[in-house]
Each structure stands twice: as C-alpha cells, then as structure tokens.
Amino acid sequence: MTVNQDITKTNWNLATKIAFRFFCVYFFLHIFPFPLSYLETLLGNNPFSFYTNGMQQLSVWVGKNVLGINYEITIGFNGSGDTTSNYIVHFIIAVMSLIIMVIWSIIDFKRQNYDKVLLYFRAFIRYYVASILFVYGFGKVIPLQFSELNNFDLIKTFGDQSPMGLMWNFMEYSDTYTRFSGFAEVIAGALLLFRKTVVFGAIVVIGVMFNVFMMNMSYDIPGKLYSGLITMMGLFLLSPDIKRILNFFILNKTVYPKTILPYFSNSKYQKTVLIFKVLFIGFLIYNNLGGAIKNQEKWGKKAPKPALYGIYEVEEFIQNNDTLPPLATDSIRWKRIIVDKWYSGIQTMDEKIIRFKEETDTISKTLKLTSNTDSTDVMSFYFKQKDSLFYFETIYKGDTLKIKTEKKPREDFLLINRGFHWISERPFNR
Which residues 6+ apart lie within 8 Å of 41 measured at CB? Predict the structure, then answer.
C-alpha cells in the first residue's frame, strides 16, 4: 500500500502538535468502537460492548474512590446522556488523553508534523459525525424523535410542563419545522462525506449542533455532553482551514483553491477506497432512513392507536349510588379518563394524574386498567357508547363505580384546530 507522499510538507509548531495529540486520543476514546459497532446490526450483538460496559463500571469506581461521590451512581441506558456516570466517563477520557498525550509527546518529540495522521483521522471523524447526524436527522425527516402531541399534553397546564416537555411539545407540534431541522442535520452529514465540501459541511455542523447544544442547555434536556462533543468535532474538522476562512470572510484577502490529494497514489487502492465509501454511504442511508420509516409504524405517528384512544370528560361520577359533585379539591372524583398510545390514566378533580396500562376488548366491551406501579391493582370496566357519550361501570376495591363521560375530540383544542395561515390580518396570540 503506497501512501501519497505529497501530503507531508509542513512543519507544525509545538502547540499545534500537542493539541492534535490530545484531541486525537480524546475523540478516539469517545468514538470507539465506531465503525465496528455496526457489526451489531449485522451480527445481532456488539462484540465490542466490553469497552462501553468497562467504561461504565470504571466510572462507578472512580466516582466512589477518586471523586468521593457518596450517592448511588447508576449505569445503563435510561434516555439521559448527562448522568453522573456520563460526566465521570468524560472526566476519565480527558485524564487518559492528557496522560497519553504527554507520553506520546516524549516518545515522538522530533516529529515535524502529523499531516498523514490528520488526513486519515479527519476522515474518521467526518464519517462518525456524518453517521450521527444521519441517525438524528432521518429521525426528524421521518417524524420519529418528535412524534406527536399526546392526549396528556393537551390537558396539561402550561405551568405544569417541564422545560424539556415544553421544548419537546414545541417540536412535536409542527412536522414542518421538525423536518426542516432534520434536513439540516442530514445535509450537514452528507457534506462531510466528500472532501470538496467538508469545510462547508463543518460550518453547517457547528451551526446545527451548537443550536442543539444551546437548546439542551436552555431547556434542561439531558443531551448537553453529547451535543457539545459533536460541536467540538465540527470545530476540529474546520480547524485546518481556519486561516483560509478568516482571510475570505473577515480579512478580505485572496484565498486560493486547496489541493485535495488522493489518500493513496496506487489507483487500485483508490478504487478500493471508493467502493468501500459507496457501500458505507449506502449502508448509512438504508440503515437510518429505512429504520426511521419502519419505526414510524412502531413508535411514531403511524403506530396503532388503542380502540378507545381519546380524552373522556367525566360528566357524572357515581360511587356506591352517591353522585359526587365536581369539586376542584376532590381527590376521589374523576375529572377525565385519558387513553393514549403508550400509557393511559385517570385525572382526578384536584388535577392529579394516575397512570395505567390499558387493554381494550371491543368484542366484550371491556376496558382493563392496570396500575404502572402495582400489577395487582386492576380496574376492569364494562363500557357502552351512545354517540359521543361513553358509560363505564366497575366494582373496584369494594366500591361500585358508574361513570358517564363525553369524548372530547382532539380538534376541539385550539392548538390542534388553529392550523397555518398565509394571511393574518392581526396576530393570533393566545
């Protein structure tokens, strides 16, 4: 294998060499085992899971014995990327990178530059960032990450939303904006896949991912560490061209075209690399776009809805033949029955929501609600329908319950029925 010899002509200063050594190790330890992690897609398991698991176990040990953390450090995926374990892993990788950088600098102090290493490591970073942007981008182009406003979102008061819930609902409301943000991520990733567009791609990556980072910071979304890391990688990809960018955009100086040399001087190796590139790009598109389309039918808007999907306003609540008045402070009388895709619930008059798992049998006309916290806590209703009115009856914990409800269409909510208007004679701000 013949590496192109024309790429080693510069002399790096000491600070540049030290910075490169550190970030080379730092990013590699964060990225590994990419791209070998895709073997899980092909084999059904990840043979390199030992690295991730080992880092998590090490984070627990370091947290207890080095950092003196006295509360339980949980590990494993739970939807948050900002757990105590995640912060400790970042700390461990930073320390390891610093140590390796020092050793590397001592051993390799005479080297004039790392042009060859930079050429290939930059490609490694480019493809990693592109693969991540494809995951999140296609998950928005095919609305999946932000699916749709659920029935609980529609009845929840504005002040009772969490900052993350507020931002999530903002994105879920509009497929148009969700797709726009998804295309921005996909286009940024696509631009990184070709060296002629990598500078433009890196600029777009920084803009897109820094915006994500700021949203995570501003709305208490537990993805701050990872979005910050991807933003740093965008800066790393852009760093070799910083002077050219400053000359063009700021200093109004002449910028000449940059010579892009092939990875190998041997044409056979160039063709081999091209084949692998085409196959890998095809795999990324198929895996992410195909996966998003498939998962939309499982988790997204096309996922099946329960037979009783909807919001049921309780008009009459009879307990043991006593009709309970709709007092706002009552913690026993129900205000609403909510049936949604992933969980259902009961809202009492004092606005408390109790969540249940729902099973509906349309043949026997039964609704079964099982408590999320106690599988032995079960309510089995018989129901009947007359137009928009639904009647539920059950015996629960020795009490006979008869409940008259009216199903409220989602379209009755202003947020749903307002829609989009090209012409607005005055602002419609409610």
Answer: 287
Of 125, 128, 127, 120, nearest in space to 263 by CA? 120
Cβ atoms 407, 311 nearer than 8 A = yes
When the candidates are 2.40.128.20, 3.30.450.40, 3.40.50.300, 3.40.50.1380, the CATH number that belongs to 310-414 is 2.40.128.20
**Residue 151 neighbours by CB under 8 Å, 6+ apart:** 309, 310, 311, 338, 339, 340, 410
Helices (H), 108-174: 115-141, 151-155, 163-173
Amino acid at 51: Y
CA dist 78 → 5, 97, 166 (Å): 48, 27, 20
Q: What is the pLDDT of residues 66-111, one digit of tens each?
A: 999 999 999 988 888 999 999 999 999 999 999 999 999 999 998 9
Q: How far apart are CA 6 and CA 246, in angstroms?
A: 26
Q: 3-state DSSP helix/strand/coil percent for the chain, to nearest 5?
A: 50, 15, 35
The answer to whether 341 and 358 are in contact (CB under 8 A) is: no
Beta bridge partners of 316: 404
List Cβ neighbours of 137 (8 Å cut-off, separation of 6 or more).
182, 183, 184, 185, 186, 188, 189, 288
- pTM greater than 0.85 (yes/no): yes
Tokens linked to 218: 């501003």
CB 384 within 8 A of CB 367: no
Alpha helices for 250-317 (secondary structure H)? 267-296
306 touches 327 (CB < 8 A): no
19, two tokens: 């910075």
pLDDT digits (tens, 9 = 90+) for 313-331: 999 999 999 999 999 999 9
CA angle centred on 358, ends 353 and 360, rounded to 5°:
135
Torsion angle of alpha carbons 22, 26, 28, 34, nearest 10°?
-160
> How many angstroms from the chain centroid is the CA of residue 104?
36
SS3 195: helix
